[in-house]
Amino acid sequence: MYRIFARIYPQFLRKKIESLLFYSKIKTEAQNFTGFMFFFSFLIALLISFIFYFFTEINFTTVVFIFIISITILQFFIYFLLVFRADRRAKFIERVLPDALQITASNLRAGFTTERAFLLSARPEFGYFAEELTLLGKRIAGGKSIESSMLDMTKRVKSEKFSKTIHFVSSFKKSYF
């Protein structure tokens, strides 16, 4: 139902929202989310406009202006909630990354295989990053190369610092892994 409303947005904005949903780990289709976002904003803006129209003594053109401003503000609000959620996830991963790398290095020095070292490094206190480490360990155990598995991990987190760190670590794969 909401897919119809999603077509109102330009293609570049739909792609941006899709990537933000991916980075935020919100498991819903981008078209459904975008359509719901417009429909919800439209209804709330309509409600605000009716409240102003019936409870104040303003003319109809001002009510239309209030409607347009309301829908725009609500759209920006929802969009920025997505941006903040993706950034919060990235900042959390950046914060726990040194500890996770240290534990992984300790596991490797202890003699564990690479995939086992990553799987054992996935501690519950690492939250989002524990899921990434578990997925990384499973992909390596499944036969995917260490370097490509680590670089795939950077595509799921919107962080330049994380990406640079993983690229740096994966460049040492021949020496240590």
Helix content: over 70%
SS class:
mainly alpha
Question: Quick one: overall form?
Answer: elongated
Query: Strand-and-helix sequence, N→C?
Result: HHHHHHHHH
Taking Cα atoms only, what radius of gyration do you get, to the nearest Å? Answer: 23 Å
Outline the biggest β-sheet.
none
Strand content: under 5%
Q: What would the average pLDDT be, to the nearest integer?
A: 89
Poorly predicted spans: none
Distance between the termini: 50 Å
Give the count of helical stretches.
9
* Number of E strands: 0
Fold and architecture overview:
By secondary structure, the chain is mainly α. It contains nine helices and no strands. The chain has helices spanning 3-6, 11-24, 30-55, 60-109, 114-121, 128-141, 146-155, 160-170, 173-176.
Key structural traits:
0% strand
What's the helix and strand layout?
Layout: H1 3-6, H2 11-24, H3 30-55, H4 60-109, H5 114-121, H6 128-141, H7 146-155, H8 160-170, H9 173-176
Quick summary:
The chain has 9 helices and no strands. It has helices spanning 3-6, 11-24, 30-55, 60-109, 114-121, 128-141, 146-155, 160-170, 173-176.
